Amino acid sequence: MSNSVLPTTLHNVKPEKPWINRRQSLQEVARPVAIATAVATAIVLLTGLAGPLGFYVAFVLSFIVVSFVDGMRHDKVKAIDKVMTTLVTAGFASAFIPWASILLTVFKRGASAIYFGFFTNDMSITAADDELGMGGLSHALVGSLLILLMASLVAIPFGIITAVYITEIKGRFSGVVRVVVQSMSGVPSVVAGLFIYAIVVSRFSFSGLAGALALAILMLPTVARTSEEVLKLVPEDLRSSAYALGASQTATTFRIVLPTARSGLITASMLGLARVAGETAPLILTAYYTAIYSLKVTGQPLASLPMYIFQNFSTGTDTALTRAWGGAAVLLSFIFILFIFARIAGRGSRK
Amino acid sequence: MENDDINLIANAAHTGSVTGGNVLDEGRVGTSGLQTKGIHVWFGKHHVLEDISLDFPANSVTGLIGPSGCGKSTFLRVLNRMHEFIPGAAMAGEVFLDGEEIYGPKVDVTAMRLKVGMVFQKPNPFPSMTIAENVLAGLKLANIKVQDKDSLLEECLTRAGLWKEVKDRLKLSGSSLSGGQQQRLCIARALAVKPKVLLMDEPCSALDPASTLKVEETIVQLSSDMTIVVVTHNMQQAARVSDFCAFFLSDGGPGQIVEADRTAVIFSSPSDQRTADYVQGRFG
């Protein structure tokens, strides 16, 4: 260390964020929160508003007033700024609270159903109203995976090809295709189930494959529409550059446009998957349900997580209901894990 | 409407008789391989270019200059058939590459574009590819097999004046480079398919002065064995890099060539007053 040589101004310089004043910003937040809490408590005690919801409403309202008054100590612009911040935050909280409470409820009620065997056993020797700690949903988990995998194999390629037709080929029927796809996204899921029931199940039998086809019908419009938006975001310049390099339209689309839009296309596929992962109605009519672990996707019913939840819920006893909640918790986690995998794949080989 | 038509015909006749095809350099005509005859361009009903005839001398740089909106970039895009991608575009006239009409019915457009490279206004490396992959993208896209990819990669990047800066990070994404480097990467990408002609549409307009200088040096070096056509708004740049200049102008109607000649002539003793005014910065 040759400190003596260094000029004093360069001595011990550390990266700082001088624009953040912790004590002041803490005060700026804490004071209005304290005042609003006091006011809200008073309102809850003195008026008809009661309970957590009453307190929340009173708190939001008083916080809006408090932040306006607080801002007015400076000027009107500052006051409006603070009120808007409060409104947006309150809006976010109002959306977040129900969502968080769903998650909390599912996991709280389902927790007692979940044990290691829950993931390795099926329900072939266990009845829905048997004691907890017996049986499981391995059959439903595997069934859901198979059905979603098959549905994706159909819907994702076709969805992306549809989007390519609309944005890249811009064929004569682009407009028609777009409208059809758009209106397909309004098809009620039970109708998709009925359709497959009529043309597949009634001729052969309930099967995982039929379930996958029904889900593919529901998935396709989401994948196609989202992919279309994603492909539109690819700069026209890149296509021009490829053409200027002597590329054909095929090469341009498959080597330049699709790779550029890769992560967006994966998101589109995930949105499609999320759209159908929890669908129950079409599966009642197509894959139906079985209590037995099976990998066979044709000729016999195949279990799935939504159907597992539905079956246990229908049984209606306490243990069956807990099993249903446990299944719901597994379904939510399952979708969550799918999303994380998709994120990782989307980032993938990006340098 | 009728009046307009009459004017158009009169104008066309006028330009035709004065220029009769702008022969930039008598001695080298025909060796260039790139000529245009009587090019007209429309977007919908809007007539944007009128009777452009130019011969581009080989192994030299031709600058297309003129104020915004006079059709220079449009003309450039006619030269490699990129014009036809614009909805509502129409044209008349002929473009010859090696004596072959590139708008002819039997022409393989992609093969033609391999011979006529293009560099765009904004740097646009392919974001899904590394630096090396970007340079070799043209080969992959056109399914061309090359024996020694590494030496081609080095050659193209060297010619584009970028090799020293990127040789240690060829595996990084093309988007990680600075704007000036990205533009030189795009030049390298265009060179990899060994085009005979290189079209450049304001290649430096998005670049800082230092990068501009490097790209200009690159242009001059490349012109030793390529025909280069550069659209530029920068008069100094036109004077620095081009051997020949064509001055485009639109006075409300479609763009026309006012004057085309050696750059030295255009900048020192142009025959048309409007050219003199423009190159000296008195309008435009």
The termini of chain A sit apart by 38 Å
The major beta sheet of chain A can be summarized as: none
When the domains of chain A are counted, the total is 2
Shape of chain B: globular
The pLDDT mean of chain B sits at 84
The oligomeric state is: heterodimer
Indicate the percent of residues in helices of chain A.
over 70%
Q: Summarize the biggest pleated sheet of chain B.
A: 6 strands, mixed
CATH top level label of the largest domain in chain A: Mainly Alpha
Q: Give me the CATH architecture of the largest domain in chain A, please.
A: Orthogonal Bundle
- Strand-residue proportion of chain B: 15-25%
SSE order and pairing:
The complex is a heterodimer of chains A (351) and B (284).
Chain A: H1 22-46, H2 51-72, H3 76-110, H4 138-169, H5 174-184, H6 189-201, H7 208-232, H8 236-244, H9 249-260, H10 262-277, H11 281-285, H12 305-315, H13 318-347
Helix pairs in contact in A: 1-2, 2-3, 3-13, 4-5, 4-7, 4-10, 4-12, 5-7, 6-7, 7-10, 8-9, 10-13, 12-13
Chain B: H1 2-19, E1 34-43, E2 46-56, E3 61-65, H2 72-79, E4 89-97, E5 100-101, H3 109-115, E6 116-119, H4 131-135, H5 137-141, H6 149-159, H7 163-166, H8 179-191, E7 197-201, H9 209-222, E8 227-231, H10 235-241, E9 244-249, E10 256-262, H11 263-268, H12 273-279
Parallel strand pairs in B: 3-8, 3-9, 6-7, 7-8
Antiparallel strand pairs in B: 1-2, 1-4, 4-5, 9-10
